[in-house]
Amino acid sequence: MAGLWVVAEPNADGSLARISAEVATLARSLGSRSGREPVGIVVAADPADPARELATFLPRVVAVADPAARGHAWAAVAAERIAAVIRDDPDAVVLAGAGPDGRDLAGALAALTALGVLVNAIAVDWREDRPKVQMSVFGGKLATTSTFTRPGGIVTIRPNTITAEPAGSPGQVEAAGVPGELALLPVAVIEEVAEAGAAAPIEEAKVIVSGGRGVGGREGFALVQELATALGGAVGATRAAVDSGWIPYAQQIGQTGKIVKPRLYLALGISGAIQHKVGMQTAETIIAINRDPDAPIAEFADLLVVGDLFQVVPALLLALRARAG
User: Fold this and answer.
1) The pTM of the whole model exceeds 0.90
2) CA-based radius of gyration for the chain
3) N or C end: fewer C-beta atoms under 10 angstroms in the chain?
4) For the purposes of burial, counting CB atoms within 10 Å of the CB of 321, is it exposed (0-12), middle (13-18) or buried (19 or more)?
5) pLDDT higher than 70, residue 195
6) Contacts of residue 43, Cβ cutoff 8 Å, sequence gap at least 6
């Protein structure tokens, strides 16, 4: 019987990546509609911990231990081992996250298995014998629905489009040995660079305060940071702010940056162009501060404060401090 496979990404600390929990939650839903059993695959030097975490979302998890997954680019090693696990399943549907590692893995796995690929899905349904994949195109202006010409294929899921929800009871983890040496040459990781003072990942933040061109410069982002700190949140930015060198790319939100889903999104000096909207439109509450009442963000923000952010934000900080103490 054709399978429904969930590729899990381990974090550097050995935990399960959040995107993998989201993909696993989607797989359970697709499993009930397709009649296929959702099965997780974890490839790591030590897959025990991420496999146990994944089993809280799926009924069965296959854990593949490979020492080459440590100290080498993960995607190529994982793709070859996963291809071996599913080699007898020509109609396999493989789900993975659409992050950097997931994209690399999907390309390598497609080459090894001849499965087709649909990328950056914002929704996946099941009809007849194959998945129907909705994707956002042209900067979010249009949504397309596509499928494969055969029942099997690889789908990468955009982060923060699914809310991760554990299953009612934990599943089983089974160890799987994949014999033989890697045919693909492992790519060694020769250096890892961690940005000094980097904030927590904005993809996981419950509150995000973002700045755009209207912040005016690097100095203006000090005010953005101050408000984010007061709210216990993270700092985000538009591409214009990143391209201007005011803030690192790691904090860019939008079509060419991160996709976020916080409970509260505060947009300071952001016009709300479609490229930025793609990255933050799923926030539960969007509040914008902008001098232009006709800015595009006014069309989809829950609240628009018309005013100068350099007057509004200090007043908001005073109110927050007064309330705190």
Assistant:
1) no
2) 21
3) C
4) exposed
5) no
6) 64, 66, 69, 74, 77, 78, 81, 82
